[in-house]
Amino acid sequence: MDNRPIGLLDSGVGGLTVVKKIIQKMPGESTVFIGDNAHIPYGDKTKEEIVELTRNSVNFLLSKNVKLIIFACNTATAVAMDIIQKEITVPIIGVIQSGSSAAIRATQTNRVAVVATQMTVALHAYQTEINARDPKVQVTELAAPQLVPLIEKNAGRSNYLSALQQTLKPLENSTFDTLILGCTHYPIIRDEFVQCLPTGVQVVDPADQVAESTFELMKQKGLLGASTQSAQHEYYTTGEVELVEKLGKIVLNDANFTAHHL
């Protein structure tokens, strides 16, 4: 048994959608989350900047004695995960690998669309991962750089719908039966995505598979905590605490959600 906490990092509040799935899957496990809101968005930064910012978050989580780190950020997964995994011994799980597996299982037509940040799309992160697993799947990628800032500001349903209607226009002539929410912020506006997509399109939230993959890896490596332990959850941000707390209460459906400034 290993009662150390699970660490999670993101560029902002989006990673809380992954925290939520982890808590649902493993309610006895403690977590430590760091959102680098002061430097959001990551999607329009250079690779070097993303690696350095991600490394800072990893070092903070290591200082909290975590037993595993989840990169709850697609951009950080695409750019920094392989680099940082070579620098540390703590296992890392990324959202892109999990999301790709889930989408391959979900699609009936072998046609998948991905909406993600600028950097994730520029690196063809999902296309590469999906085609490495199943070359038959056709992947259409779409960058949506305007969505994360709106979600971080809690801009509201009408603003989300307006932005999504513009964002998804390039997909109007594409055929796909599955769409991956390729940024952990997007599940916060999942309902708005569904409203703007053609009827019948399956929406994949990689966080579901991340939780499953995390459980299996921890079980395999003997990292699961004692079933009798009382779980503790800590939330940190480099940005504005009040805004993070407002969104955290919504995402986690927890009126007592409290964040600490780092």
Automatic annotation (TrEMBL):
One of its GO terms (molecular function) is glutamate racemase activity. Keywords: Cell shape, Cell wall biogenesis/degradation, Isomerase, Peptidoglycan synthesis. Its EC number is 5.1.1.3. InterPro entries: Asp/Glu/hydantoin_racemase, Asp/Glu_race, Asp/Glu_racemase_AS_2, Glu_race. It holds the Pfam family Asp_Glu_race. Gene3D superfamilies: 3.40.50.1860. It catalyses: L-glutamate = D-glutamate. The active site is at 73 (proton donor/acceptor), 183 (proton donor/acceptor). Pathway: Cell wall biogenesis; peptidoglycan biosynthesis. It is an enzyme of class 5 (isomerase). Substrate binds at residues 10-11, 42-43, 74-75, 184-185. It comes from the Bacteria. Belongs to the aspartate/glutamate racemases family. PANTHER family: GLUTAMATE RACEMASE. Provides the (R)-glutamate required for cell wall biosynthesis. NCBIfam families: glut_race (TIGR00067). This is Glutamate racemase. It comes from Lactobacillus panisapium. The lineage of its organism: Bacteria, Bacillati, Bacillota, Bacilli, Lactobacillales.
